[in-house]
Amino acid sequence: MLKIAYHSLYVYPLPEKHRFPMEKYELLPKQLLHEGTCVAENFFESKMPSEEDILAVHTKEYFESLVNLTIDSRAARKIGFPLSEALIDRELRIAQGTIEGSEHALKYGVAFNIAGGTHHAYTNRGEGFCMLNDQAIASKYLQNNGLANKILIVDLDVHQGNGTAEIFLNDDSVFTFSMHGAGNYPFNKEKSDLDIAIPDGSGDEVYLQKLKETLPKLVEEQKPGFIFYLAGVDILETDKLGRLNCTIEGCKERDRFVLQLCKDLHIPVQVSMGGGYSPEIKTIIEAHANTFRMAQKIFF
């Protein structure tokens, strides 16, 4: 059964300028239920993570400044959200949702977090609306509990996974692969184990060709026992921040290729949703929903 981490605090009171596209976290599960892709049993509410699991990735000083809301104003501005207890609760549950999702993926082959993909969170700071790096935390959880050895993070959000790259810079047990927009945020990029920068305006053909010639070889070389997939839909031509000009069908084919590869090679995969900033919310929901539809089709 497809298991999907979800919590009602994914949307909480925010100033108007921040509310969109946060709405997608409430609308996406409703759409999946409405169309019959998912049933209520597919969803689970995550618990709170242990401090030990967070501190396997983030520094104690940074973590305590978040939970105590004592982070300095300059660091808070880099994060981008007005900080609150509800926001920190949300971020903690997102991290735990990815941890629990990774356990479900070991059992069922694939699992999702309706949010997550907080790849701009560094060991000691947050930025770009990311505070705790969910897939990094879950990676170390699996390793520290003897559930996986070599891990591959496949980050296909349009923005480079700079925080993830920094976290695992000197850790050969986690291979970081980021395929992102060359001219996009962050403008001062970190060094992933493999970075592929796609030129603005490339479109489906260039994007998919590069992915399909790269990922199978990478998996063969690294032989991961677990894959984390960040499935941002900000690669779309409609996306306000994307610039890559991929179509809905191209984005869907990307998901099919990644998930089918994991299924064929019997590698468990946890999927976090990442970004999506098209002007119309229905476009964002459709693109994200395709990832869930594809997982149901391929794995179940």
What brief labels describe this structure?
Arginase, Chain A, 45% helix, globular
Notes on the protein architecture:
This is Deacetylase, histone deacetylase/acetoin utilization protein. GO terms for molecular function: histone deacetylase activity; hydrolase activity. Keywords: Hydrolase. This protein is of the alpha/beta class and 300 residues long. It has one domain: Arginase, Chain A. The protein is 45% helix and 12% strand. It has helices at 16-22, 24-35, 51-55, 60-67, 73-79, 85-108, 134-144, 162-167, 203-222, 248-264, 281-299, and strands at 3-5, 43-44, 110-113, 151-155, 174-181, 194-198, 226-230, 269-272. The chain has an 8-stranded parallel β-sheet, with helices on both faces. Strand 7, helix 10 (248-264) and strand 8 form a beta-alpha-beta unit. Helix 2 (24-35) packs across helix 11 (281-299).
Q: Biggest sheet, open or closed, and with what strands and sense?
A: 8 strands, parallel
What class, by secondary structure content?
A: alpha/beta
Radius of gyration from the alpha-carbon trace, in angstroms: 17 Å
Helix content: 40-55%
Detail the poorly predicted runs: none
Number of separate helices: 11
Beta content: 5-15%
Shape: globular
Q: In the CATH hierarchy, what is the class?
A: Alpha Beta
| Domains (count) | 1
- In CATH, the homologous superfamily goes by the name Histone deacetylase domain
Distance between the termini: 7 Å
Give a count of the beta strands, DSSP E runs of length 2 or more. 8
Secondary-structure element order, as H and E?
EHHEHHHHEHEHEEHEHEH
Task: Assign the CATH architecture.
Answer: 3-Layer(aba) Sandwich
